[in-house]
Amino acid sequence: MPNRNNQILKNTNAKLLDEFNASIMFDKELYSQDIKGSIAHSKMLALQNIISNDEQKSIENGLLQVLKEIESGEFKFSLEYEDIHMAVENRLTQIIGEAGKRVHTARSRNDQVCTDFTLYVQEKTKSIQEQIKELISTFVELASKHTTTIMPGMTHLQHAQPINFGFHMMAYANMFKRDFERFCSSFERNNYSPLGSAAMAGTPHNIDRFKTAELLGFYAPTQNAMDSVSNRDFALELLFNISTTMMHISRISEELILWCSYEFRFIQMSDEYATTSSIMPQKKNPDVPELLRGKTGRVYGNLISLLTIMKSLPLAYNKDTQEDKDGVFDSVSTIEISLNILNEVIKTMVVNKDNMANACKIGHLTATDLADYLVAKQNMPFRTAYYITKELVQKANSLNKDISELNIAEIRSGAKELENIDEEIVSYLNLENSMNSRDSFGGTSTKQTLAQIEYFKEWLKA
Ligand code: ARG
């Protein structure tokens, strides 16, 4: 009796252990990289006379057959083979027989998983970069239509100085350009092949790691086998780069959410990308940018999770690192859909120029212009000019007017020091003139905004 129960318990535990230990449920995503890596490895083994040319041909054809089976959905993934590496090798041997058992010569799953995962990260880095570039060109295109569309520029979410909407959009183009460049530099730093590091210390076989590196599109092999099998920096960099890009996505999302509220009404989102309420029939909700903002949190979680997994791991390989993949796959699919959706939202939204212009008439956006005028024309110390301007702002408030709407008489009666101010001050306090006066490099003037747009158009072409 007790024996039988033990047997059941054993079976249950074995199944539980398989489930716990395996990574096939998620690392099957790496099938194409795994097959590519094995083909390159077999070619190198043949070139080095470690396997015969016939064996290599047979391995390569067998692997291509496995690839076909996976892509057609015919392939049965099972917990029996712990991960994609064992699953592919096993099926290969089923198909081609003895030669299949030679493919794992001079490698280990430890270097194999790093190779596959690096290839995956590098491929995704390139495709995410393409998407970022598309988004940047959407911002540039939108900006070029709005270099004279005046709107309130804000600090502390309070009206600060007049800017044009194109300038605001170009601020985002700049952020996403930095993201693009960050992905570039990670690609460069991580484009080295771990293959042939074997379990942790290299191999006694006469392999040519430079050859496999070349066949797989890497610049060269990695330098140290021990580091190679325990390294996950390349995955962390991808997670960080995705997180930073999502942070930028969440910032524009937040602005879109504010801008389509009744308080702003600066934009209107296309019906396609807005949702309704199940109870309030009048509602048009910005669920899409809210989700983009929310998904940013999830992507940060994946970054912190891998950082925490890697923390304190002794050299070299440890099974802990099997936990690296799920979060990376999740962050990749999250950013892919997010960039896609954001691009469409920006392309299809309607910009309410009039509401932006009207909003500029609240909050004395051109107050700094008076202070700057007094400094430039009357050689007044800035702090003195600042307090005189403050007095005029109070005067404007008492008249229920914005500083940009005051006539010369009202300005002259605003402060003792303004009594004899030249009439030209009225034009300095004009919103559009104020915006265009900020003509320093990188400033908001239409001229500078157009120059930025030109620079970006050239950059996008390169
Ligand atoms: N399945 C593992 C992973 O995803 C790779 C295998 C290495 N396993 C091992 N016990 N050495 O990281």
Automatic annotation (TrEMBL):
Single GO cellular component term: cytosol
Main location: cytoplasm
Residue stretches making up the Fumarate lyase N-terminal domain: 11-301
Domain Argininosuccinate lyase C-terminal per the UniProt entry, residue ranges: 364-436
Domain of life: Bacteria
GO molecular function per UniProt: argininosuccinate lyase activity
EC number: 4.3.2.1
InterPro entries: Arg_succ_lyase_C, Argininosuccinate_lyase, Fumarase/histidase_N, Fumarate_lyase_fam, Fumarate_lyase_N, L-Aspartase-like
Principal EC category: lyase
One Pfam family cited in the UniProt record for this chain: ASL_C2
Catalytic activity: 2-(N(omega)-L-arginino)succinate = fumarate + L-arginine
NCBIfam families reported in the protein's UniProt record: argH
HAMAP family listed in its UniProt record: Arg_succ_lyase (MF_00006)
Family statement drawn from the similarity comment of this UniProt entry: Belongs to the lyase 1 family. Argininosuccinate lyase subfamily.
Protein name (database record): Argininosuccinate lyase
Species of provenance: Aliarcobacter trophiarum LMG 25534
